[in-house]
Write a structure and sequence with these properties.
This protein is α+β, with helices and mostly antiparallel strands. It is 23% helix and 36% strand. The chain has an 8-stranded antiparallel sheet. A hairpin with a 5-residue loop joins β4 (84-93) and β5 (99-108). The longest helix has 9 residues, at 59-67. The radius of gyration is 16 Å and the shape is globular. 33% of the residues are buried.
């Protein structure tokens, strides 16, 4: 059974249990309408999206292996609220600049060393690579897989000329049995 939400206005109040949290919060702050989204099972996700989304490895490493190219980070928006840091980013292939993922992250900063926290706040390196290289012990737990009808803003960052279905996932970041973050990752059209 598919659970669907309809397009909501930017005035809707996002919450941590929403399908697109924290992307919905970032979009609300920017006055951007939400895309349509529904939950799907892994079997409902076509290839190559399924192999890119259904795994326990961090997305940065998965994307770099798939595209055989390092990915770099382009921050789209960032802000701090309480002890959490929010950022919406675009991951792009290093040499071509082609978008390979848009992500929205809410991460608690107080759980990291000063050095790792500083690197996160610089917005230069994808979070997965920072945590992996910093030997930070964490687990990424998938909460749901998503089928997304993109909004105009999402189509723009992904260089899309027409509306096509996209896929993504919502995960929680766990450290020492405690949730320290939320991530929504959306993939652009993938052809190989």
């Amino acid at each position: 059974m598919l659970k669907e939400t309809t397009r909501t206005s930017a005035k809707s109040r996002p919450n941590q249990n929403g399908l697109l949290y924290p992307l919905d919060l970032v979009y609300t702050r920017a006055g951007v309408d939400m895309p349509r989204v529904k939950i799907v099972t892994p079997k409902q996700i076509p290839q190559p999206y399924r192999s890119l989304l259904v795994h326990d490895t961090d997305m940065t490493l998965t994307l770099e292996r798939h595209f055989v190219d390092r990915v770099t980070l382009r921050p789209l928006s960032t802000f701090t609220s309480g002890r959490s840091y929010f950022r919406r980013v675009l991951l792009v292939q290093k040499y071509s600049g082609r978008p390979v993922e848009m992500g929205a992250i809410r991460i608690r900063l107080d759980v990291f060393s000063q050095q790792l926290r500083s690197k996160i706040l610089r917005d230069k390196i994808p979070l997965g690579r920072l945590l992996r290289d910093g030997k930070f012990d964490y687990e990424s737990r998938v909460k749901s897989y998503l089928c997304i009808t993109p909004n105009a803003e999402m189509m723009g960052v992904f260089w899309m000329r027409e509306v096509r279905i996209l896929y993504g996932r919502r995960t929680e970041v766990i450290h020492n049995q405690t949730k320290i973050g939320d991530i929504v990752e959306v993939l652009p059209l993938v052809f190989r």
